[in-house]
Amino acid sequence: MSGKDEAELSRLMRAAIAGDERAYADFLHRIAALVRGFVRRKIVQGGVDPEDVVQETLLAIHVKRHTWRQDAPVLPWIYAIARFKLIDAFRRRGRRIEIDVDDIAETFAEPETETVSERDINRALDSLSPAQRSVVSAVSVEGRSIGETAAKFGISETAVRVSLHRGLAAIAKRFGQGRFGRE
Amino acid sequence: MRTDDLIKALDADAGSKAMPLQSAWWMAAGAAAVIAAVVFLLTIGPRPDFMAAAHTMRFLSKFVFTVVLAVSAFALIRALSTPGASTGRAMAWMAAAPVLVAVAVVLELFMVPEALWGTRMVGSNMMICMGFIPLIGLGPLAIFLWMLRYGAPTRPVLAGAVAGLLAGGLAATFYAAHCFDDSPLFVATWYTIAIAALALLGALGGRFFIRW
């Protein structure tokens, strides 16, 4: 959390906003590490999975990047978002305890589907429309480029970009509303 | 989905653009002022002796209070909708309008004989005041709450309340041009109640409407 971090991250973010994709990837990887450290320090007892909070924070940073003022330091902005998402996760955890009858029912119904990799974001992904879900999965999990994804589904690159953007926005919105379970 | 996979998706979406929040706030303020002006002119409009009244201190003081409130609330709401922005100074400026009103009230109490205090405070149209300030402020409040959704307020209830104060300051600025009751005693009582109603509505909006 040095001044060097701040200067480097601000520079990457400005480059990313100007359209430099490589700078954006670099920026996201660095803040993922920063936020992971921050969240792990704050979560001392179980109940909240740190990586879920990291993913939520990254999504929020992405969909809210127009709220960063380019002349302001970027680290306070990042930590304010991470803190907000962490508090949100704790609050939700508190609520889940109150309604744990449903949780138990669900656990009995399908015990073996819960694995370590079963993340909030996967459930959010499941709630997308089929077109958005396949595009988001192709670009993320399968690691395809926009062009490869367009070729795979036989649609235009613009259509891929639109589906990806709307899908990510829908996941972020779902997280914001605290809807994580299946509906 | 692993975090690295998520980053791939976010990176592929790097090209999507949204208007910077600070520019959007200025547009929203402009739109809110236009809506408030239209509602004001279509309903009650300015008082007939507006030009003559504009030469009196009491009439002009109303605009000082409401404009100071609107300007300070606008500065604060822009900070509150930006994560990590410092809000201390903007928060302190929120005291300016109440302090000005309080000073004016004290001056009025010295200048007006005690027998008239009651009539000055009750005024002639407090019901219109309490009805029309919220009415004129409703459209602007909706715009400001929508803007808070576009932004990222980490204290949504407080931000919503400030949205109500901003809408109230804006609406009261227009309403003051209609109102015949110019005494600070009237303003301190009824304008405050009407603006507080908008602030409460804004806080509720912040609680239930602003999620991100």
Task: Please outline the helices and strands.
The complex is a heterodimer of chains A (183) and B (212).
Chain A: H1 3-17, H2 21-42, H3 50-63, H4 75-98, H5 100-109, H6 120-126, H7 130-139, H8 146-153, H9 157-176
Chain B: H1 3-12, H2 21-42, H3 50-53, H4 57-80, H5 88-93, H6 96-111, H7 114-122, H8 126-150, H9 156-178, H10 184-209
Helix pairs in contact in B: 2-8, 2-9, 4-6, 4-9, 6-10, 7-10, 8-9, 8-10, 9-10
Number of domains of chain B: 1
The biggest sheet of chain B, with number of strands, parallel, antiparallel or mixed sense and barrel status, is: none
Number of helices of chain B: 10
Structural class of chain A: mainly alpha
Structural class of chain B: mainly alpha
How many E strands of chain A? 0
Helix content of chain A: over 70%
Mean pLDDT of chain B: 96
Envelope shape of chain B: elongated
Low-confidence stretches of chain A: 97-116
Give helix % range of chain B. over 70%
Gyration radius of chain B, rounded: 20 Å
> What is the assigned CATH homologous superfamily of the largest domain in chain A?
RNA polymerase sigma factor, region 2, helix turn helix motif
Distance between the termini of chain A: 41 Å
In the CATH hierarchy, the architecture of the largest domain in chain A is: Orthogonal Bundle
Distance between the termini of chain B: 21 Å
Q: Which percent range describes the beta-strand content of chain B?
A: under 5%
Instruction: State the CATH topology of the largest domain in chain A.
Output: Rna Polymerase Sigma Factor, Chain: A
State the oligomer. Answer: heterodimer
